[in-house]
């Protein structure tokens, strides 16, 4: 009987402990959701403020909340949730990157594709090399105590940019070239940084040689190409399934669900095969917007574009809010509290390397890009804006730093704690200080540029056939240039290579891709299909006009 009594008491204590733990989690989540609501409301009220934007607002609210929690917990904790790389890379990053690909203006993106790849891939490699070499040169003198793998990881961590602040100021319609370059480079940069980081971790760098460097580069190219191909295949598969099965005949919910799940599946498959999930889900978003989105019913189109935009928006606010709260994690600051000068020196050095690494490729690569263009050249003011857009560091840098220098978010090693606190300092300083200056700077450099507060939705950003071609080609498409002689294919390729590729891609797309995978104007008539709905709408509008 006594044993039974003891057993029942133990079970009661366990139940009480679990209920207390569950209640604490509920309180933390409720407070965090309340803070998210506060960020949205305050961001709306400050929308037309000259200095502030939504990301800075969330970051500052996070820091203030962290201070309050720190005071109430008497220095024990500053955050409601424990930082988790899985939370960031598996749940928060995919909707942001997918929506970026889903909403992008494809004509501008692919027209400037080579320049974007030049900045996003080659530029990130240059920045990675400069930051890594600079860290080796300066930190060795400071006796930070890091291995060669740590120095290369630092290069990848701080090569990752965060251009959200600049994109919130630029207008996609008024400055399409600048917006597409900043936007496209930001996505490719994130993917390149993560691929570089993973490549560095997968190699034995104790004996660094030319052979290892070549293998590193080869692995990077393999990951880049295979991740892109996987994203395209996943997008085409979703388009084919929805086109053939017509879920919308019975339920639009199924259409929306299958689009969302297949988009997320592309990211998880990339992670499963050790590829770049960022690149995969980005190109999956582009392909889905080109084919899949046109295969669903009108209701599903409206639902999906707003759902993807909303998920991306909430995830971004969540990330900035949490970064602000985690900045005051006392465990790491206590480890480096005995060497404040070293900590400040490391942070200042990293910030200087970020500035130098950015300038080392933006201006030279802009010059090279301009040599290959006859029109839409990048002028000096635009180059300065592109340089400035990449100075901010954000959640990708934080997540990679935690991955390299902590175990489950904790560390007691002085060198590792020093790098974590320095990363936090650089992220806070660059986002708040550089972010506050972004609006006035862009207005100063481009006074005619209106601020872009509304994210352009997919229905407003589709490219017409006439927009795709240039001059005579556009006239021919509209039937106005029948008497004009179109130049030969070789001459077109030599004079306007990008538009020529677009021209032949559109012919291939119309002849082979759209009949199989659907898309605008290529969905066959089937009762209950999107085509029936659009035909019904056209008939209804015709009757109204009569």
3D structure, described in words:
The protein has 546 residues and is mostly helical. It is 75% helix and 0% strand. The protein contains 22 helices and no strands. Helix 5 (113-142) packs across helix 6 (148-159). The longest helix has 44 residues, at 2-45. The protein is globular, with a radius of gyration of 26 Å. The model is unreliable at 452-487, 490-494 and 538-546 (pLDDT under 50).
Tell me the span between the first and last alpha carbons: 90 Å
Largest sheet: none
Order of helices and strands: HHHHHHHHHHHHHHHHHHHHHH
- Structural category is mainly alpha
Radius of gyration (Å): 26 Å
Residues in β-strands, percent: under 5%
Beta-strand segment tally: 0
Mean pLDDT: 79
Shape: globular
Helical residue percent band: over 70%
Low-confidence stretches: 452-487, 490-494, 538-546
Count of individual helical segments: 22
Write the layout of secondary structure elements.
Blueprint: H1 2-45, H2 54-72, H3 85-103, H4 106-111, H5 113-142, H6 148-159, H7 164-169, H8 176-201, H9 210-245, H10 252-272, H11 277-290, H12 298-326, H13 330-335, H14 340-371, H15 380-389, H16 395-405, H17 414-445, H18 465-468, H19 472-477, H20 489-495, H21 497-517, H22 530-545
Helix pairs in contact: 1-2, 1-12, 2-12, 2-17, 3-10, 3-11, 3-12, 5-6, 5-8, 5-14, 6-8, 6-16, 8-9, 8-11, 9-10, 9-11, 10-11, 10-12, 14-15, 14-17, 15-17, 16-17, 20-21
């Amino acid at each position: 009987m006594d044993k039974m009594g003891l057993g029942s008491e133990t079970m009661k204590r366990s139940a009480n402990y679990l209920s207390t733990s569950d209640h604490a989690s509920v309180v933390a989540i409720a407070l965090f959701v309340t803070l998210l609501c506060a960020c949205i409301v305050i961001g709306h009220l400050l929308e037309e403020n000259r200095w502030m934007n939504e990301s800075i607002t969330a970051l500052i609210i996070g820091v203030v909340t962290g201070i309050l929690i720190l005071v109430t917990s008497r220095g024990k904790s500053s955050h409601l949730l424990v930082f988790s790389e899985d939370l960031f890379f598996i749940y928060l990053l995919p909707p942001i990157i997918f929506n970026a690909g889903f909403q992008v203006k494809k004509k501008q993106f692919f027209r400037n594709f080579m320049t974007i790849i030049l900045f996003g891939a080659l530029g990130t490699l240059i920045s990675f090399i400069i930051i890594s070499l600079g860290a080796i040169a300066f930190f060795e003198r400071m006796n930070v105590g890091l291995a060669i793998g740590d120095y290369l990881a630092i290069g990848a961590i701080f090569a990752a940019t965060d251009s959200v602040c600049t994109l919130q100021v630029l207008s996609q319609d008024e400055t399409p070239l600048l917006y597409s370059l900043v936007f496209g480079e930001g996505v490719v940069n994130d993917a390149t940084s993560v691929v570089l980081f993973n490549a560095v971790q997968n190699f034995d760098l104790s004996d660094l040689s030319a052979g290892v460097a070549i293998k590193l580069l080869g692995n990077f190219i393999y990951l880049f190409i295979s991740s892109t191909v996987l994203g395209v295949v996943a997008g085409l598969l979703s388009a084919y399934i929805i086109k053939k099965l017509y879920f919308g005949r019975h339920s639009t919910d199924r259409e929306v669900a299958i689009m969302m799940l297949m988009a997320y599946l592309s990211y998880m498959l990339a992670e499963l095969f050790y590829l770049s999930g960022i690149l995969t889900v980005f190109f999956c978003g582009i392909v889905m917007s080109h084919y899949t989105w046109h295969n669903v019913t009108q209701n599903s189109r409206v639902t999906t574009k707003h759902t993807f935009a909303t998920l991306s928006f909430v995830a971004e606010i969540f990330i900035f809010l949490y970064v602000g709260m985690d900045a005051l994690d006392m465990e790491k600051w206590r480890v480096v509290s005995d060497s404040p000068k070293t900590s400040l020196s490391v942070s200042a050095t990293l910030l200087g390397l970020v500035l130098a690494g950015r300038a080392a490729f933006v201006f030279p690569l802009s010059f090279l890009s301009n040599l290959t263009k006859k029109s839409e050249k990048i002028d000096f003011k635009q180059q300065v804006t592109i340089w400035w857009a990449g100075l901010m560091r954000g959640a990708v840098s934080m997540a990679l730093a935690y991955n390299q220098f902590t175990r489950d978010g904790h560390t007691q090693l002085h060198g590792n704690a020093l790098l974590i606190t320095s990363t936090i300092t650089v992220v806070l300083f660059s986002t708040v200080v550089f972010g506050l200056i972004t609006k006035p700077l862009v207005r100063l450099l481009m006074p005619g540029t209106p601020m872009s507060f509304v994210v352009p939705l997919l229905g407003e950003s589709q490219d017409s056939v006439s927009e795709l071609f240039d001059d005579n080609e556009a006239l021919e498409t509209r039937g106005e240039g029948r008497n004009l002689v179109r130049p030969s294919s070789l001459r077109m390729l030599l004079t306007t290579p990008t538009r020529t590729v677009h021209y032949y891609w559109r012919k291939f797309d119309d002849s082979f891709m759209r009949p199989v995978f659907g898309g605008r104007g290529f969905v066959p008539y089937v009762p209950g299909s999107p085509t029936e709905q659009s035909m019904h709408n056209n008939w209804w509008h015709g009757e109204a006009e009569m």
